[in-house]
Amino acid sequence: MSGFAEATAVQRADERSWHARVEQGWDIAGNANGGYLLAIAARALTEATGRPDPVTITAHYLAPGTPGPVSVTVDVLRAGRRFATGSATLSSSDRPLLAVLGTFGELPASTAPAAGPERVDAEPPELPSPEECAGREPPADEAPTFMHRVEMRLHPDDAGFGFGRPSGRPLVRGWFRFRDGEPLDTIGLLQAVDAFPPTIFNARLPVGWTPTVELTAHVRARPEPGWLRCAFSTRFVTGGFLEEDGEVWDATGRLVAQSRQLALVPRG
């Protein structure tokens, strides 16, 4: 199986466009994971802007993606000394899948000294050890899917929905890493913020496909190797939509990414 970096790789076609491929096994029920699609577009944007790290990136999801060739068309809107901003459209052979706007730069490692004042009025989510959390080992003879690619260990208090016992709180916490041990870079953080089960699964509301309308990620630093601590919560389920706010902390206890996602509420 190809690793994440290989599965999100892009090849330049001309001045504004890149070729890529949505690989088998990064899907959920046949549709490619949204964070995975965003990572492909982000790879093209890093090459176009000459900046290695997404600082802030927003994606609007236009259609589901399935395995096969895709193209990424990029426009660099501004290139400054520290940051560059660009837009991208990820398309299959017959339709656009994703519209993206992002600002890119070069972020420090999470262990680097702070470049300016810092105030963090939060802490990483309290989690039992990964061994004490709820995980799932996909059967070896099962066709590769997203769960063969990533490893998540959910807080026991947040894993009951899988057994028909939702907690009643739209909250999902847990550990994250790539199953093959590949280190996470800042593009990998875009996958982490869209990997966990939807928070609504714990809200005692209909469980079903929860399509993403828009996803924004703010990346703060390059993560250190090891498990990520993640927490996702929802405060508002209104008008057929829900928001999901995410925090991602690395092995050093540093906040390395935040996210907000707008999704459709599953229909009963």
Which structural class best describes the helix and strand composition? mainly beta
Rg, rounded, reads 18 Å
Q: Strand fraction band?
A: 35-45%
Give the integer mean of the pLDDT values: 94
State the name of the first-level CATH class: Mainly Beta
Low-confidence stretches: none
Helical segment count: 4
**CATH-wise, what's the superfamily?**
Acyl-CoA thioesterase, double hotdog domain
Number of domains: 1
Order of helices and strands: HEEEEHEEEEHEEHEEEEE
Mind summarizing the main beta sheet? 13 strands, antiparallel
Distance between the termini: 36 Å
| Helix residue percentage | 10-25%
Q: What's the CATH architecture?
A: Beta Barrel
**Which of globular, elongated, flat, extended, rod-shaped describes the shape?**
globular
Oligomer: single chain
Q: How many beta strands in the DSSP annotation? A: 15
| CATH third-level topology | Porin
